[in-house]
Design a protein that fits this description.
The structure holds two protein chains of two kinds. By secondary structure, chain A is mainly alpha-helical. Chain A folds into four domains: 2-36, no CATH class; 47-175, Rossmann fold; 272-481, Serine Threonine Protein Phosphatase 5, Tetratricopeptide repeat (Alpha Horseshoe); 487-587, Tetratricopeptide repeat domain (Serine Threonine Protein Phosphatase 5, Tetratricopeptide repeat, Alpha Horseshoe), CATH 1.25.40. Chain A has 29 helices and seven strands. In chain A, the strands form two sheets. Chain A has a five-stranded parallel beta sheet, sandwiched between helices. A two-stranded antiparallel ribbon of chain A has the order 1-2. Chain A is elongated. By secondary structure, chain B is an alpha+beta fold. The chains are: A mainly alpha, B alpha+beta. Strand 2 (31-36) of chain A pairs antiparallel with strand 2 of chain B, so a sheet runs across the interface.
Chain lengths: 588, 228
């Protein structure tokens, strides 16, 4: 339709119908008569100095937009038929207005383009971004509120509607300029004050002003003030965004249960509300319910799969829940989405390789070997994408140690680990929090719970570790304290313990030996194995290899602190071994 | 072999998208053709009106069909937020500007200055487009849009001075669809959709509704939608 309107307008000497509203004091209760007056134009805006960009993959529509904008009075109009071209143009020109079609075929969609433009600071803070939508795509558009555009315009529209839309947006911008300037300069207190003033002065924008004030209060950590504003909105009408804001305030005020109740109400109104799922995840993360967190993040990801940050958080929480396949899926999506964008990071590759490794059963199966190949492939991709740094090399070595352990090659794993230690490459400060976490996990897989725990505790105190990562770390610490070695080693250890209790000591030794191969540094496994070996020896089976094996078990544990919960047991076993084979212990 | 069930909504959405682009292209070509060969007579103008009107109908019907399908399958997404009523009405008039001018219809709008209300703009636009285009077709030469928010409801009405709505429609405008009358060409789809959209607007236990009658202040038909 737009084309015919534009054409007819031109036929009729460009006498596009213009509406003017004037307040009529004589009419009842402030009713204004909107009259149709073709000669009177809203011409106070100087379009000629505004720079406009239009992005649309549909060539004809692009052409229509270009012609219409010129007819409206714009002089600097640039057209782009792909997101990439739009980004290029943005690097050269600071646009005042950007019109972008949401649905752009194969490439990035309008929302992704908007996010990237803002992220790369390719658009100024006062640039007006208008998303062109079709009703068919509005679920997606309204659901994914990562970054909101300044306005929407629904296809099909004609030149007159376009002009009116632009006028309204420019008018709004002028009314609220002081506020946006203050926010831009990070003078938040001032901005809040200006919001309240503007709300009085411009009743038409009152909601926007108060909504913005509430958001700014949240930003400043003034949760009580934000709560009051949101409650004020909700007093008049139940609105999803106000419930969402209220929930955010409740959560920060440590009223997590109340926050969850509000969020559930949001989902009744709008089951596609991605931020509601995000917030539910955050609330449950505070309640330490990692399964609920995973559940809500999965919902959010289903609706809005292209957020690298959210996919990464989902991956982290999957690891915490020992859902390694789920983790690998999430990390993989994050990686694919981030590829060739500024969000691509080495971390993404290490996380994916780690999750694939974790998903291995450690049973030398064909499945395991294919997973090992996959993990190595991810690490090779990393090489192709990034210049190799020293720290990257260390992180790759740590990843390899974990793969080797799963492949039941503890000797090689330990050797590699020793090299890293001897070359002093594992200094905590050198590693930084991401690599330090990988170091901690490697130690855990080696069975060195003690050291792993120390590292995890250190990480929990780091400021640059986010909430979902902390939840993962806390869950790992919990696993450790439950004596949970994870996967196959833990299974073997438990079976061994059962056999030992049934007095099948010989077979328990076999299982403990296997577990120790998978988790060579595990205190629990080494103590169990030593105890079983000692029992055989004390029962008269003076097998030379048993002595040797017990010795190396206690050696793997190293020196235990007197306060360690296993110290007494360690001391007892060590004494008993000394009694049986004094010479060998002394040699150590 | 198990067949993946077709997501009809998706297929439908994609078809609507396609039809819209197609209608757009069609009109764009016409636009270019007319720039090169301006219409010389009243008759030509009339043809343009018909093209415009029919294209609007294709678009509106496709949208409504998609929305109704989603509604029936509990997949219609309703997003109610505050909107300026005057802006909404203005946009409607501007969108049908050409049609109004070419049919020489005088429009009178009564709307509270700066009045804000809560509704799903996109859905209401779909409702309005349909009723509006229909009214333009059947009115003699006048049209009145008035907005009133006395009480708990916002009432938006579209009145004309045409021959009015059929009696059967007035009694049960939302249910008319079930008795499609192919002889008159009226399917009642637009009003059925309007009634459903109105119902989707709820506030504090009150539900929206529509009214259709011939009590127009202009002497013809009147359509009213009430939103809580």
């Amino acid at each position: 339709m737009p084309f015919i309107f534009a054409a007819l307008a031109r036929l009729l000497n460009d006498s596009v119908l213009i509406l003017t509203s004037r307040f009529n004091p004589e009419s009842r209760q402030g009713i204004a008569i909107v009259s149709i007056n073709p000669t009177q134009a809203l011409s106070r805006i100087d379009y000629s100095r505004k720079r406009v960009l239009v992005v649309d993959d549909f060539a004809q529509h692009l052409e229509f937009m270009g012609k219409s904008l010129l007819a409206i009075g714009f002089r600097e109009v640039e057209l782009a038929d792909t997101a990439e071209k739009a980004l290029e143009l943005c690097e050269k020109t600071k646009f005042d207005l950007v019109f972008c079609d949401y649905n752009m075929g194969e490439g990035k969609n309008g929302q992704q383009l908007l996010e990237e433009m803002r992220h790369l600071a390719l658009v100024a803070h006062d640039c007006i971004f208008v998303m062109i939508t079709a009703e068919t795509s509005r679920e997606v558009v309204l659901g994914a509120i990562e970054a909101e555009p300044e306005g929407y315009i629904a296809k099909p529209f004609n030149e007159a509607v376009l002009r009116r839309k632009i006028d309204r947006l420019l008018d709004k911008q002028a009314c609220l300029q002081e506020v946006t300037e203050a926010v831009h300069k990070e003078q938040i207190d001032t901005a809040i004050k200006l919001c309240h003033e503007a709300a009085e002065r411009h009743p038409r924008h009152q909601s926007w002003c108060l909504k913005t004030a509430a958001e700014l209060h949240l930003q400043l950590g003034q949760f009580e003030e934000a709560k009051q504003l949101y409650l004020g909105f909700l007093d008049k009408r139940v609105l999803d965004w106000a419930l969402l804001g209220l929930a955010r305030a409740y959560m920060q005020l440590d009223e997590v249960e109340k926050a969850i109740a509000e969020l559930q109400q949001v989902l009744v109104l709008n089951s596609n509300c991605v931020p509601a799922y995000d917030l539910l995840a955050e609330c449950n993360s505070r309640l330490n319910d990692s399964h609920a967190v995973q559940n809500h993040l999965s919902q959010a990801v289903k609706l809005s799969p292209y957020s690298v940050e959210r996919q990464t958080r989902l991956g982290d929480i999957c690891v915490a829940n020992a859902d390694y396949e789920g983790a690998a899926r999430a990390y993989r999506t994050a990686l694919t989405t981030a590829r060739h964008s500024i969000q691509e990071s080495e971390d993404g590759y290490f996380k994916l390789a780690g999750a694939i490794t974790d998903s291995m059963a450690g049973d030398m199966s064909r499945y395991d070997s294919s997973k090992a190949v996959e993990a190595h492939k991810v690490l090779r991709e990393l090489d192709e994408r990034f210049e190799s740094k020293d720290i990257t090399k260390t992180r790759k070595d740590l990843a390899n140690v974990q793969i080797l352990l799963k492949q039941q090659n503890p000797d090689k794993a330990l050797a590699l680990m020793n090299d890293l230690e001897q070359e002093e490459l594992l200094d905590h400060e050198r590693l930084g929090s991401s690599a330090l976490f990988e170091y901690g996990k490697t130690l855990l897989n080696l069975g060195d719970e003690e050291k792993a725990n120390e590292i995890f505790s250190e990480l929990l105190k780091c400021d640059d570790v986010d909430e979902s990562k902390k939840l993962l770390i806390r869950s790992l610490i919990e696993h450790v304290s439950e004596g949970n070695l994870g996967g196959r080693a833990s299974e073997l250890n438990e079976k061994g313990a059962r056999l030992y209790e049934q007095d099948d000591v010989e077979n328990s030794i076999k299982l403990f030996t296997e577990a120790a191969r998978l988790s060579p540094k595990s205190i629990v496994v080494n103590l169990n194995l030593t105890q079983a070996l000692l029992r055989r020896m004390e029962e008269g089976d003076v097998n030379k290899s048993y002595k040797q094996q017990s010795k190396s078990c206690l050696g793997n544990i190293g020196d235990l602190d007197e306060n360690h919960k296993y110290f007494a047991r360690y001391q007892n076993l060590s004494d008993r071994l000394k009694a049986i084979a004094p010479d060998q212990i002394l040699e150590n | 072999m198990d067949k993946q069930p077709l997501d009809f909504s998706l297929a439908f959405g994609s078809a609507v998208h396609d039809v819209k682009n197609s209608v757009g292209l069609l009109l764009h070509s016409l636009d270019e053709f007319m720039s090169a060969n301006p219409p010389q007579s009243e008759e030509d103008n009339h043809r343009v009106v018909v093209l415009n009107y029919e294209a609007s109908r294709i678009n509106n019907d496709m949208m409504q069909l998609l929305s109704i399908y989603r509604l029936e399958n509990d997949r219609l997404f309703v997003s109610i937020d505050e909107a300026n009523v005057q802006d909404f009405v203005e946009d409607e008039l501007l969108a049908h500007d050409t049609l109004l001018k070419m049919k020489k219809i005088g429009v009178d709008v009564q709307c509270d200055f700066g009045l804000n209300w809560y509704f799903d703009t996109m859905l209401l636009k779909s409702v309005f487009n349909n009723v509006f285009v229909n009214t333009i077709r059947y009115t003699k030469d006048k049209l009145r849009i008035s907005v009133d928010c006395s009480g708990d409801f916002l009432c938006m009405s579209i009145e004309d001075n045409g021959r009015g709505y059929p009696e059967a429609l007035c009694k049960d405008p939302g249910g008319y669809l079930t008795r499609i009358n192919f002889n008159t060409g009226s399917t009642g789809l637009g009003l059925y959709f309007a009634a459903r959209v109105a119902e989707l607007h709820e506030n504090e236990g009150r539900q929206g509704y529509i009214e259709v009658d011939n009590k127009s202040t202009l002497g013809g038909g009147a359509f009213r939608i009430y939103l809580p």
